[in-house]
Design a protein that fits this description.
Helices cover 50% and strands 14% of the residues. By secondary structure, it is α+β, with helices and mostly antiparallel strands. The protein folds into three domains: 240 residues, no CATH class; 220 residues, no CATH class; 139 residues, no CATH class. The strands form four sheets. Strands 2, 3, 4, 6, 7 and 10 form a six-stranded antiparallel β-sheet that branches. A five-stranded mixed β-sheet has the order 1-14-13-15-5, with no helix packed on it. Helix 8 crosses helix 9 and helix 14 packs across helix 17. The longest helix is centred in the C-terminal third of the chain and has 43 residues. The N terminus is likely disordered. The structure holds 2-acetamido-2-deoxy-beta-D-glucopyranose. The site of 2-acetamido-2-deoxy-beta-D-glucopyranose has 5 residues, from strand 15.
Amino acid sequence: MALYSLPARSAPRRPAVATTTLLLLLLFALGCQRWLCVHGFYIAASAPHHYRVGESLPVYWNKIYPGRKLLGPSLSYARLPFVCPTDGNDMPNANLGQRLAGDQLVRSDIQLSMDRNITCQVLCRREVDGDAVEQAVHLVRQHYMVEWFADELPGTHPWSNIMDKQKRYGDGFPLGYYDPLEDKVFIYNHFIIQLLYEKPERDPNQRLIVGFEIYPKSVESVGRTCPHDASVPGMPQQALLPSTQAITYTYSVLWIEDKQMKWGERWRNYLNYENDKSIPVFSLVNAAIILLVLTIIIGVIVLRVLEVNFPLIANKDNSEQDELHGWKQLHGDVFRPPEQADLLAVLVGSGLQLLASVLGVLVLGVLGIVNPSYPGGLITWAIIIYMLGGAMSGYMSARLNKTLVGTDWKKHAVRTAILVPGSLYLLTVLLNFFGWVEHASNTLSFGGLVGLLALLLCIAGPITMAGAYIGDHCAALRHPVRVNAVRRAIPPAVWFMQLVPGVLFAGIPSFGAIFLEEHLIFHYLWSDRFYYFYGYTLVSFVLLIIISSFVSVSMTYFQLCNEDHRWWWRSFLFGGSVSIYIFGYAILYFLLRLQSEGIISTLLYLMHTLAASVLIGMLLGSVSFLCTYYFVRRIFKVVKVN
Ligand SMILES: *[C@@H]1O[C@H](CO)[C@@H](O)[C@H](O)[C@H]1NC(C)=O
């Protein structure tokens, strides 16, 4: 057999080397993940502001947003009909990311002067009508959270764990609370603002702000006066009733020197790197075990394909041998271009573009460049990298198209530039429309939408076209075996290798690997805590990509062994099918954990999760397709020798 003309000396080592490398990478990844969780760092957005004693500094009011994010619109705090009106101007320079996140900073009337305590100060007495009270009740019952800023820090409501008494920073502070015993809603109308500062050693007259804590209280309003002492328990509280006429808002300010905290570390409490012990290493070990099993499967496949490591099996000339090499019969069909090959090329290209965007943001997060001290930074970077990634998308799409279809690269490039970015744009418009209906602050104005469209057409489009131009001018990918003119009949497959069961089955290992993480991500997404574990997310994400690619390769191999040559689309679907489970999980989570609060929030939730699942599926499908393509070309090189 000519198969033995393979270089028998070097080949046997390769799978072993590959497996060892993978294992080492895995250990390294786990180590990195631990390290990143404990020693995460970030790069500050701006230089520290040194305050003199008595220097005034503004408090900015930003937005309120549902504690269970995505389940409702974000609204501008200053424009609510039941809080103090302010004539402060909006901060002018909001970036695109901030707009999309609904950030609208408005200067409030709260007076802060460095190191001057205020016992109690009336902010305003706001007259309210029935509608305003009703809206307030609705928002409080939806767990709405308030976000203020001072010195670029979001105001936070600290809480501590009973177990370790560690102070942790929550995300904003609640608008009010609902007491189920009395069936009454209370609004927080007295704010104890506690500012922590650092005295730099060099100049004791200067102050640096290292913490902005807000302890909201509900105190029954008696005219335009300050509550006697809001911290005494058992004081009457400000309920929201149909009879409520006015709400008095008051605040007090305490300046406290923090001898431990340094300005350069002031985000630590928000990031909770050291505090949060609940990060399950377990879930990554789980993913690692799945990866190990898959690595072994792939290793065995590679060994079988190369045969050199199994001289015993190879010498046995039995029927089992033929069964294992059924795929070799397919050499005349395996590279026959699939139906809709141009669409496949577009999807693979677009998937790579998404990959660039997600990986890019996560890496920038790990490097500390994307972090919460840049409001809107995450979304802005994601959009920039996505647009630049168009070059990759255009290139890959054009090259695949040239290989599989061969004609008309310009039309194809336009399609690549439009299909996925255009759908994302339409989705943004649709979500915006919902936002306008609900007067949300996380909407773009009409001008903003036009600007985004211009960005897509004038920058992202040409970048994609340029990539496609290069892709088309590269040689078409070469296949090791030629396609026969006659199509080979496909024998009937066992039921679990048919299209639908096969694709569903392929999603299970990947979902198993991320199941625990997904639980965690959902938990944090719907709770009121910062969650910025970029390193952890990056490692999990890379594991997910490797696992789904491995699954796709193995499933494709088994299918080829069954003499079914339709692998092009299937390898894409095998890799992407985990998104079906992710979407199913999101629905289940919605039904079990979150109560639906009206048709619009249900729709919003469904649209967000569906879009996210489709995008994840496309991303994983695209990488899996490319891995499988490489694998198939590799194994058919062996046949060529034969
Ligand atoms: C402000 O109040 C805090 C807490 O009671 C106290 O530690 C601090 O010394 C006070 N600052 C001034 C300037 O009075």
